[in-house]
Design brief:
The complex is a heterodimer of chains A (864) and B (118).
Chain A (H helix, E strand, L loop, with lengths): L1 H11 L1 H25 L4 H12 L2 H12 L2 H19 L1 H30 L9 E9 L2 E3 L3 H10 L3 E16 L2 E10 L3 H5 L3 E4 L14 E5 H8 L9 E4 L2 E9 L8 E4 L4 H4 L8 E6 L5 H18 L1 H4 L3 E6 L1 H49 L4 H35 L14 H27 L3 H5 L4 H42 L10 E7 L8 H16 L4 E7 L9 E2 L1 E3 L13 E6 L3 H5 L3 E4 L13 E5 H7 L9 E4 L7 E7 L14 E5 L7 E8 L7 H11 L6 E4 H8 L1 H45 L4 H30 L15 H28 L2 H6 L2
Parallel strand pairs in A: 4-9, 6-8, 16-21, 18-20
Antiparallel strand pairs in A: 1-2, 1-10, 1-11, 3-4, 3-7, 3-10, 5-8, 6-9, 7-8, 12-22, 12-23, 13-22, 14-16, 15-19, 17-20, 18-21, 19-20
Chain B lengths: L14 H9 L5 E2 H11 L8 H14 L2 E7 L5 E7 L1 H25 L1 H6 L1
Antiparallel strand pairs in B: 1-3, 2-3
Classes of the chains: A alpha+beta (864), B alpha+beta (118).
Chain lengths: 864, 118
Amino acid sequence: MTLLFRKLTWLLRRRRKEAELEEELRFYLDEEAEERQAAGLSPEEAHRAARLELGNVTLLKDDTRAEWSWTPLEHFVREVRNAVRILKRDVRVNVVILCTIALGIAANTAMFSIVNVMLLKFPIQNPERLVLINETHSPDALMPVSPGAFLELQRTITSFESICASLDQPLTLLEGDNPEAISGVLVTGSYFATLGLKLQLGRGITQEDDQAGRSDVVVISRALWAQRFASDPEIVGRTIQIDSRQRSVIGVVDIGVEETDVWVPMAFDAADRDNRVSHNLIVEGRLKAGVSTESASTELKQIARRLETDYPDTNGGWSVVLTPMTERMRVLAYLLLSVWGVAGAVLLIACANIANLLLARSISRRREIAIRMAVGATRFHVIRQLLVESIVLALIGGAAGLLLTFWGARGLNSLGSDVLPITVRMEPILLAFTALLSVTTGVIFGLAPALDLSNSNLSESLKDGSRSAMAGHRHRRTRTALVVAEVSVSFVLLIGAGLMMRSFVKLSSVNPGFNATNVLVAELTLPERKYASADEARLFTNSALQEISSLPGVTAVGASQVLPFSSGFTYGVVFEGRPDVKDSPTPPVHYFAVSPQYFHALEIPLKRGRVFTTEDRAGSALVTIVNETFARRFFPEESAIGKRIRVTSERGTWREIVGVVGNTKQGGLASRSTAQIYAPLDQIPFSSMTFVVKTTDRPMSLARNLEERIHSVDPEQPVAVRTLQEIVKESVFPVQIVMIFLSVFAGVALLIASTGLYGVIAYSVSQQTHEIGLRTALGADRRRLLVMVLRRGMFPVAIALILGITVAFALTRVLRAFLFQTSATDALTFVAISALLTSVSLLACYLPARRALKVDPMVALRHE
Amino acid sequence: MKRKRPSRVELLQGTLELLILRTLVTGPSHGHEIAKHILRTSEEAFKVETGSLYPALHRLEAKGWLTASWDQSEKGKRAKYYRLTALGKKELIAEQSKWEVFARAMGLLLNPLDQEGR
């Protein structure tokens, strides 16, 4: 305490303390001189000896002052002030450095915030113990679980901490006057506990809520909370109207899980409890710690066998299997971390480049540093000063990088990113990360130049003449090595970007099997309460189809229960008259219910037979249309037309194949053509439905009218309208986003590396000015001189290319998972990127070379 | 002609403060005197560099172990005199006994025969 107090008062009396120290030392000097004079030295000699005795006064004062001042802090402030002053001195180079840092930091900050949202803040706890549980009756067709089977599993299972069931349920939120379609999930009481969903506010749904009569509660997503309720902190306890039922909000889930808006209790009724026929529940379970998936599988199989013996009618032939949930997460993590690796490489290139620039500049600072050391600065002081300069630079660059990240994120979001939510929020953790990264960056690029500068030979540096030649020579090798590293890493990144671009182009040109141009898509789900019977649903669909088709500008309109590019449902198929293939040995087949005009609206070509007509109604002969893949696989030697097949879920009903149509890419552009079958929508009505509307021109201009027509049939029916083109674009988004990231990062790397190359060449040319002048004066051919300079400049590029090609060959394998019909060693990409890099490098060398040749030989010769 | 200097030893880390405190037991003194006293008393073994002396004096003053005042020197010049405080005395006693334990232990370890022979 006294120490602090004394230092404080001393701080206030600074000037006086300074004078006192001065006097104290002078007194020492006088005493010492007097003593020596007494010993017989002359006054001058005595004084000189005393001075020698006292030693380095500046350093002594500095050290003493340190005892009574707030030295560390003061030093730091002074150091920073100094750094800013020095940085202002060399604005042009510093702007280049700042831009380089900003780009490198921005790339990493962006990746950090994405990883932070996607992985670190993943709302589910310990996802590695989560598994998906399915019922199955053939090895390839995993089916959701029936309520009866779920309850039996929940009652008897021991290898799980808990299991839960959920069921997607489109709902309508009535807030104010306008009904809004939201996606809901019905969940059992164990759902929140099983998944370990983190909540932002309130609590999750529990077993108490999951009972008839007490289930009027709802948990909402953070997105819905923010959009519809302005993030009201008092939301818990409020009552909102969902599907004409008043529900009280009990919690807000931390972040959006997939696309769910609300969670409501399942509340099975008595009929559900005995229902072992409707396979509609998504069942997830959390394994007990230490229980392997194998032993859990065995237990599930035992329960399935018991169900088979107890309920042979409904459960005969069915088994229960599990799939670990982490599979999807792992792919995502792999993707994100590899892109982050690329961002890290960009930052390293940036560091190499800045170190390079600083090394070049260090020549001009050699004298300044030498003088500082001559007046008593230690090596430590010098290194500290230089590092503070680097860190100040890096922090300014980091701040600029943060801004760049925000703009970049906005730009990316405008591309449409339902797949990767790139939300960069000004969070403390993001700021901390950026600050830490900036400081680290500053140390990385500043350390080598600082060590080098502080190591300089004092007297050598103080002598003016020897200035550049010696030091320059020593540096050239280091700097060339740095450039080689930069160029070769950029090359590898460019190859990666090139491969992704080629994949993207190929993917975009894949024929999905339908024509998405000028097609509007209207998605809706009929509320079960209102459309209880199949007839009512059928009536709605047919009236809506009629209404829409009468719209001007509409050329065809179809309906399907599944949207193209959504995964859809797969079933097993049995063939009539093939006893050897008894109970659905077929691989899963996509099964769609479509209206007659569907094929016409999407321009799916008819290959043989006929498409559905309005005569294919409920009650008329059951028919089906298969796609070419189906026909080729199951009827390779005969015509499929006229054959009869049965979908395993429709027991005892044979459907006659009446037509064969072209394949569509149901699982997205990159997917392989699957076997697909279609049935008339009238014969198997579904409650969720998609209208596909072919228009003559500009489909979105009709969106309003389309909604009106649907509302003329049912004014309360929510409907979502998009274009099919949008859906196609979204399906390539993952590939597109990897491509964009890689291209941007690789572009940045190329830019940084070429400025680095330019810097080195420009510097070495300026060193050669003398030689060039001499050669010109002696009559050397200018063109040959130019070639000479270029050859020297391109030498490191050639080495970098060889290195880069070798590394790229080894590394691009990593990308294979994202490549589409493109080899990881695609020759065209390698050649094109090499050419690109060579021409950029040539330009970077040519500009300074040309300048050198323009120099007047007389001036050049005078140049030291 | 110069007499050959007696062999000097480096001051051990932290011992300078102890020596300064010990020197001041006999009464207030200024920097130059303290340095000379240590040099003389140690038979020229300890040469206190001014570069360490003054920082050490100011450090001890900051800690409150010494106080300083300006006074007339013997030759009539103004000099900064350092004086031991009560706190400084207490520290000196503590440091000195620590040092004695240390020195004895070093002696025992370095000259075991001396001890056994006795």
